[in-house]
Amino acid sequence: MATQGFGDVAERLRRSTVQVTLGGRARERGSGSGVIWTSDGLIITNAHVARGGQRARVELWDGRAFDAQVGAPDTRRDLATLRIPTRGLPAATAGDSSTLRPGELVLAVGNPLGFIGAWTTGVVHAHGPLRGLGRQVWVQAAVRLAPGNSGGPLADAQGRVIGINTMVVSGGLALAIPSNAVADFLKRGARPSLGVTVRPIAQGLLVLEVAPDGPAAAASLLLGDVLTGVNGQALRSVDDLSDALDSVSSGILSLQFQRGGRDTHREVVVRLVAQAAA
User: Fold this and answer.
1) Catalytic site residue 150?
2) Three-state DSSP state, 183
3) Domain that holds residue 57
4) CA distances from 109 to 4, 12, 89, 247 (A)
5) What are the beta bridge partners of residue 168?
6) Is residue 240 a contact partner of residue 233, using CB atoms and an 8 Å limit?
7) Catalytic annotation, pick one of 16, 31, 33, 48
8) What is the pLDDT of residue 26?
9) Total domains, the chain
10) Is 234 left (phi over 0), alpha (psi -120 to 50) or beta?
């Protein structure tokens, strides 16, 4: 593709990328980016950018700013929606992430380190799970990202969004949530979440963080607890917990855990809540 043509693609993508700030005040520092998904004000970003329940403010490429309604986040996929009260927006075009191949040229746009609408290019490294992060599929790309890129678009050479930039792992590899996962999120809504961050250890899953308003906090689970089972089935990996959450139809599950390094097992009943995405 000619340089001028690629510049046009980048400019169109910049106009479909927004800056997201929390707290509803324009003077607050931007916490991340988002992508205009539909022209009537639907924006996709990361759950860790939107932090569901807080007020957010969205600034467009032309300088206009709007208070945004934060939709129910899917913390397991790290996706969330924002809705702003305006129409006629320059929506991005979603691509089919399943067609990606290693070596393809990609373009990332976001607001890193306070630079509004910055863009950078790279190539697709892989499309699939990453060792240590369970079965979740990622678009893995050799693209230079920085704080503020989270929630912004990763697009192919034609400007079609094939991922939502989320994080950087060791070696500088950028990870993006595939566009097909975004489509599933918008269709099915947020998946049930326990509201914890965990790490596998020999005994089970060590709780590293408990979301203040999540089901785990309501059930009095604490930082440092070790989840050992769910509904009587042993927990050995993050995928085991994910499968259990997806299989619970009643919205209620029984968690077995250890606390304080003791061998004694405790049990708690957790009520899950799943909401529509938009």
Assistant:
1) yes
2) helix
3) 3-83
4) 17, 11, 17, 36
5) 174
6) yes
7) 48
8) 43
9) 3
10) beta
pLDDT band of 277, cuts 50, 70, 90: low
User: Which member of 97, 150, 193, 242 is catalytic?
Assistant: 150
Residue (of 121, 127, 119, 120) closest to 162 by Cα position:
127
In this structure, the answer to whether residues 97 and 181 fall within a common structural domain is yes
Does the annotation count 78 as an active-site position? yes
Among 83, 115, 142, give the residue marking a domain's end: 83
pLDDT exceeds 50 at position 3: no
Contact, 103 vs 79, CB < 8 A?
no
Phi/psi at 120 (nearest 5 deg)? -145, 155
The encoded tokens of residue 135 equal 């079965």
CA distance 163 to 182: 8
CA distances from 188 to 181, 183, 272, 278 (A): 10, 9, 16, 10
146 shares a domain with 110: yes
Residue 120 counted as domain residue: yes
Last residue of a domain, one of 34, 50, 83: 83
Mean pLDDT over all residues of the chain? 88
Residues 71 and 111 both lie in one domain: no
DSSP 103: T
The alpha helices in the chain, defined as continuous H runs, are: 3-15, 47-50, 179-188, 215-218, 238-247
**246 part of the active site:** no
Residue 214 included in any domain? yes
Report d(CA 194, CA 146) in Å as an integer: 29
- Kindly report the CATH number assigned to the domain that includes residue 228: 2.30.42.10
188: helix, strand or coil: helix
CATH number of the domain at 114, please.
2.40.10.10
pTM of the model: 0.85
Q: Give yes or no for residue 27 having a pLDDT over 50.
A: no
Q: What token pair was written down for 168?
A: 């950087």
Say which of 16, 31, 33, 78 is annotated catalytic: 78
